[in-house]
Each structure stands twice: as C-alpha cells, then as structure tokens.
Design brief:
The chain is mainly alpha-helical and 338 residues long. The protein has 16 helices and no strands. It has one domain. The N and C termini lie far apart (77 Å).
Length: 338
C-alpha cells in the first residue's frame, strides 16, 4: 500500500513528537506534578548559573576586544618574559590586572594567544586568573577571613597553574595545542610587528564592542550548554550521595571536587558556598573545592574545548585534578584542624 503524498510531506520529527505526547499522556497525575517540580528546579538552577556567569563572560569578551585593539604584540612581548618559568609566573599573576572569572578568562586568553602570548603564560593565566584576581580574593577573605584557607587557596592555585603552564611549555608551537582561529596566525612573541597608523579612537572603541559581541555570542552558547548540564545534574542527581561521604580523608576530597564540577558556580561566589560545607566536609575537601572548581567545571571545559585540541584539553583537566586531589589529601592528614 502506497503512502499518501500529503503524509510523505510531513517531517518525521512530527511523528516522533506525536508518539512522545501520546506516551506522556498515559502518565498518572502524580508523575506530572513531580516532573513539573523538577522542571521548575531545573529552570531556577539554570537561570541562577547563567545570570551569575553571563556578566563575567561579557566582561571577559570586552577585555578580549581591548587586548585586540589596544595591545600590540610588541607591548605584550615586553610585559611577558619569553622563558617558560618566568612567563608562567607572570601569567599566573595577570589576573590581578585582568579580573575575570572562569567564563571570561577563556575568550580573553584566546585573544592573547593570537597576539603572541606564550603558551605557558597563557595556560597559567587561564587557570589562575579565576582565583588570583581582586574580586575573588576579597570574597574569599570575607568568607574565611585573612587566614590559612585564603593563603592556601592562593598558593595552590598559583602553584597548579604554573606547573600546568610548564608542562605546556614543552610544545614547540602553539599550533600543537590550540585549535585554529579564523584570521589568527599565532605569531611568536619575538617576531616584530610593522607600525601602522592607528584609526580614530571612536572607530577603535566600535571595533572593541564588535569583537566583544561576536565572542560573547560564540562563547555564550557553550555557557548555555554547560549551565544546562550543571542544572540537570543538580536536579536529577541527589547531592545527599556526596554529602554522605564527606568526612573520609580521600573520598571527601573526591566528593567535593565532583561537587565543584556539578555546581559549576562562579569563582566570585564559590567561597560562600564552600563556607556552608564547613563541619560537613573535611578541610582538605573544602580547599580542593575552592582550588579545582574555578579551574575545571562543566561550562569551562566546554569553552576550553573551543580553544584547545583534544590531548592538550585532557592535560588541562587531568593535571589540575591530580594536583588538587593530592593537595586536599595532604591537608587532611597534616592540617585536620584547619
């Protein structure tokens, strides 16, 4: 029997949608109420993550535009040492000058790579800037005071960032680690540039805003996907499973690191969230949450994947994971009363 031409013109997706609606219609009212409650929680968590992170992503893309328009390659070469260790150290401290969180730092770092920033310095900046910036430092001090937790968070974040940057310094060319960007040449820092006449200031600011908007919408879709995944995990995975194992010296660290990835909250407020786990999780686990979370979470990994090739991306996740885990375990065994 032949199918009617009118039916053949209907897209297959509509048949799947109709079948799904028929199946959903068979659900009892209790399931609908439960599903509606979960969807409400999902929407609230998603909006919370997105609204929290979007301004900082916009701030980072504005910084990216400023770097592209107002920073020359020669200026960047004078500010950042060419050698791996000094360059990584300087890169880890650049967050004091560019106060961006883990969302905004990705487009800014990519733009700096395009301007000739050494790979080791850029990776150090990428990992350290979400913690080593004045906003996050003040928030951490407000939550935990000017004490050992603040010192350890800063020292470990800087140490892990520099160590990871040194690993990336073994790459002979940025092209070994970075995905190509349209219009980018990844020129080495030492190659001089040709001086050209600067356009009028109004045109330069217009160019800054154009670059910022383009990168905001490019990176924003990964923020939306990351926030959706994080909200889904928080909605449908019971966090009590993680809290139930919060006191073991090793397992608690793993649980809090998993929670940092799960929550995907901005580094500007994560200290106050961590403060709520005092007494539930071990000190090393709290510290690992504060160190690892700003470096690696769902939304930042999706943004990293836009910039780095697969193998460097794995290193970018694995090295901070192992070092944060080791640091948390050491603190649990040596400073249990922190």
């Amino acid at each position: 029997m032949q199918t009617s031409p009118a039916i053949r013109r209907i897209p297959r997706q509509w048949f799947f949608l109709l079948a799904l609606l028929i199946i959903l219609a068979t659900f009892p009212p209790e399931i609908w109420f439960l599903l509606a409650g979960r969807l409400t929680d999902f929407a609230a968590i998603f909006l919370g993550i997105f609204i929290e992170a979007a301004p900082f992503l916009l701030f980072g893309t504005l910084g990216s535009g400023l770097v592209e328009v107002f920073f020359s390659k020669d200026l960047l070469a004078r500010l950042v040492p060419k050698r791996a260790l000094p360059g990584s150290l300087v890169g880890s401290l650049m967050g004091l000058v560019f106060p961006v969180c883990e969302c905004g730092v990705v487009p800014l770092t990519r733009r700096m790579f395009r301007k000739g920033l050494p790979l080791s310095a850029g990776v150090s900046f990428l990992l350290a800037a979400p913690v080593l910036n004045p906003i996050v430092l003040f928030a951490t001090a407000s939550a935990f005071g000017f004490g050992l937790m603040l010192v350890l968070r800063v020292a470990l974040s800087m140490g892990i960032a520099v160590s990871t940057g040194m690993v990336f310094s073994t790459a002979k060319s940025p092209l070994e680690a970075l995905k190509p960007i349209p219009g980018a040449t990844f020129l080495p820092v030492e190659i001089p540039t040709v001086e050209t006449t600067a356009p009028p200031l109004a045109d330069r600011w217009r160019q800054v805003l154009t670059i910022a908007l383009d990168e905001f919408f490019e990176m924003g879709r990964y923020l939306v996907i990351g926030a959706s995944l994080a909200a889904a995990m928080q909605t449908f995975i019971p966090q009590t499973l993680l809290v139930a194992i919060g006191q073991g010296p090793v397992v608690s660290v793993l649980a809090m690191m998993a929670l940092a990835v799960l929550l995907s909250i901005c580094s500007t407020v994560d200290a106050f969230v961590a403060l709520g786990f005092i007494g539930i999780f071990s000190p090393g686990a709290i510290l690992a949450f504060l160190v690892f979370g700003p470096m690696v979470d769902i939304k930042s990994v999706l943004m990293y994947a836009r910039v780095f090739q697969l193998r460097p991306l794995i290193y970018l996740i694995l090295i901070p994971f192992l070092l944060s885990l080791l640091a948390g375990i050491i603190v649990n065994y040596t400073l249990p009363g922190l």
